[in-house]
Amino acid sequence: MGSLGFWRLAQADPGWIAAVDPDGAEHTAGELLARANRLVHGLRGLGLEKGDGVCGLMPNGVDGLVLYLAALQAGWYYTPINWHLTGPEIGYIVADSEAKAFFVHPRYAREGARAAEEAGLDPHRRFAFGDVPGFRPYEELVDGQPDTLPEGRSNGATMHYTSGTTGRPKGVRRPLAGIDPDDSCELQTFLLTLFGMTPGRPAGGSPQAHLVTSPNYHTAVTQFGGTSLHMGHTLVYMDRWDAEECLRLIEKYAITSTHMVPTHFKRLLSLPEEVRERYDVSSMKWAIHAAAPCPVPLKQQMLDWWGDCIWEYYAATEGGGTIASPEDWRKHPGTVGKAWPITELLIVDDDGTEVPPGTPGTIYMKMTGVDFEYKGDREKTERNRLRGFFTVGDIGYLTEDGFLFLSDRKTDLIISGGANIYPAEIENEIILHPKVADVAVFGVPDEEWGEQIKAVVEPAAGVRPGPELAAEILASLEGRLAKMKWPKSIDFIDAMPRDPNGKLLKRKLRDPYWEGRGGVI
């Protein structure tokens, strides 16, 4: 293989500023390399072996990056956990991933502690970056450990959890190749080269920098940030999204790439013109976006402002995808692009028969040489496959020349600010309320977030609908469901529309909210 991969680059140039924390603290590659090495030695002392799992409940920043780098060179699976979740939701992931160590930041101490108890995790395997009652200090694990490269290094992987439309989230687990970590990470850089991205430390050239704008527990955020690092780019972390701060960081660090969702574009474009003009964003070469459909006018405004650096793609945690260059999109406004060279697309009807170009159907993808399974759920893994292709249930069509357009999202999936939210999980909690006879949850239009969560409730017999009942239902979700999943509003209905077999006719409820919008998306 060549000369990419964090560990190779860090040994060749330990003084390279590899990451910048949200507070502005700069960290060299040599420092990160030493920290990741000490962590591997410490966890091996705890008995971790190849194929084991590690979980982190961490904000954006270098501490979480060290967990990632340790796992990827020791042959472990690293699962970054959504810190919006409640203790029981986090605990399920810690237990299901069979984590042999769980790391928590003090910011999430309360839910992290609840999670560790829920998972039944040995207190000896709980670690905190700071003071968290019931957790061992991180320093206790690494102090006195050597900072040399560990013996028997082997590639690890991230294992992100993706929610299903029913039941609990599932870990997307890929087989480990058992190869050199740098070689493995160099192979991953193939994705970024599709966008034309280049190594960040060219001889005599300017260093490149990647701005991390979203929580690192998202698959794409980890993928694009981590892979940028393996190409030698500096990672600059934001702790929370702020539009003007984003522009300030782009100018200060001469940011060359970032990964965003359309909600970020909306917030940036909402800034007063004098604020937008205050910052130089000309260093940006690859402003890559995905995760939610981007309204054509919004993207056009971003192209007018930032120039032809706005790239789009469509993909899934499970693997495979499409890519649309700025030029592609200008010629085909609204497209999410053409298949990656290692991806095949298949559009089928309800019978699994391929449909002709221009005809909407369920989108199936296949990624050459890459396989996955939903951890512990072979049935779900097989159910979502068709002749070697898989689907996440999205609807779309292909043009004659191979450009993909999304016509609809999964029937039930809500995409709010780029986050996937699954109504069944919310419905399962609300239906437990004694004053609720029936409930349906779905997405309705939201100018800023794309969609917001709406619940329609059929009250129990004799229960009076109204604001008081709505408030009571929402209050019952406290501690049981992450607030990002709470309905923004609750409407009431006398009787839920169901067919003779009892199946909920959710479209009858949802369609009126989307009238005149050209389809639910």
Automatic annotation (TrEMBL):
Keywords: Ligase
Polar residues: bias regions: 155-166
UniProt xrefs under Pfam families: AMP-binding (PF00501), AMP-binding_C (PF13193)
Organism domain of life: Bacteria
GO biological process, one term: fatty acid metabolic process
Domain AMP-binding enzyme C-terminal positions: 425-503
Gene Ontology MF terms: medium-chain fatty acid-CoA ligase activity
SUPFAM superfamilies with a match to the protein in the record: Acetyl-CoA synthetase-like
PROSITE patterns given in the database record: AMP_BINDING
Domain AMP-dependent synthetase/ligase: 7-370
PANTHER family: ACYL-COA SYNTHETASE, MEDIUM-CHAIN ACYL-COA LIGASE ACSF2, MITOCHONDRIAL
Family: Belongs to the ATP-dependent AMP-binding enzyme family.
Name of this chain's protein: Acyl-CoA ligase
